[in-house]
Write a structure and sequence with these properties.
Number of domains: 2
Largest sheet: none
Distance between the termini: 42 Å
Shape: globular
Number of helices: 12
Order of helices and strands: HHHHHHHHHHHH
Structural class: mainly alpha
Strand content: under 5%
Radius of gyration: 21 Å
């Protein structure tokens, strides 16, 4: 029952896009707008799937693990529709589609990411997990982090100068990759909310510097002016660095509450 509810929720953005298309609310180029909306949700779901492991460990909520596979498959479905709509937009001219993928780097990167995600979706069943074996299956599915990187690069290149949400995705990707790196290569226990909170602040600052550098290199906007704007809080238009901080620090705050509550419960449960 829970899985069915999850899939209904995951399908909501696609249903809303389909409804807007039917009602003529997607502008002068409805197929192109649908391509962008569906692709955006595909990337969002990919990042949501990537976030399951650190969130599960921080919140000490192992039941979240069962959602990761379904959200990952939903991400593939959205991105497969994203690509299919692009083929439709090209009037099913497969030769043109293939040549565009070869000649346009951002399409090449996006197509490689889609193929990688397809491989993960195909091997996401229980039968394939048993066939591959747990160790080989985990090694294969670590490729999802590379796919996340490729998807973010594709998003950046496709967005050109309007990189507001790609910068948010980039900051979140740094947090996710950094989390895995600290867990794998250091003695730091990233499951403690204190470490996670400090890391969130560092990543937010790095996101602010990264966006300022991006605009400094590609536009006339001066580095320091963009950085100053990034570090200011404007509630009507929060800069990407603040969104990265709010999302990742929010996870840590919930973890702090859950960990503190659990610790207090264990103390009360001890015999006097």
């Amino acid at each position: 029952m829970l899985k069915a509810v999850l899939w209904v929720l995951l399908a909501v953005p696609a249903a809303l896009t389909a409804l807007d298309f039917y009602q003529g609310n997607l502008g002068a180029r409805p197929v192109t707008e649908a391509i962008h909306q569906i692709g955006l949700w595909g990337i969002r779901y990919l990042f949501l799937a990537l976030a399951i492991t650190p969130v599960r460990q921080l919140w000490r909520w192992n039941r979240l693990a069962v959602w990761r596979r379904n959200i990952g498959v939903a991400s593939f479905c959205y991105l497969a529709v994203h690509f299919s709509l692009y083929v439709i937009d090209q009037k099913f001219d497969l030769w043109k589609v293939a040549s565009e993928i070869v000649l346009r780097y951002y399409l090449t990167i996006g197509f490689v990411a889609l193929c990688g995600l397809c491989a993960l979706a195909v091997t996401s069943t229980d039968a394939m997990t048993r066939r591959l074996g747990g160790k080989r299956w985990r090694q294969l599915h670590r490729v999802v982090y590379l796919i996340g990187l490729l998807a973010t690069i594709h998003f950046f290149m496709q967005s050109k100068l309007n990189v507001y949400e790609p910068v948010i995705m980039g900051g979140l990707l740094i947090w996710l990759l950094g989390w895995r790196a600290f867990e794998a290569w250091t003695e730091i226990d990233m499951r403690r909310w204190e470490w996670a909170s400090g890391f969130s602040i560092a990543v937010a600052v790095l996101t602010a510097f990264g966006e300022a550098l991006y605009y400094d290199l590609l536009t006339p906007a001066p580095f320091l002016r963009v950085l100053d704007a990034n570090l200011m809080i404007e509630l009507d238009m929060l800069r990407p660095a603040w969104w990265v901080l709010a999302i990742t620090l929010g996870v840590s705050v919930v973890a702090a509450v859950r960990q503190t509550t659990a610790k207090a419960a264990r103390k009360r449960a001890k015999p006097a």
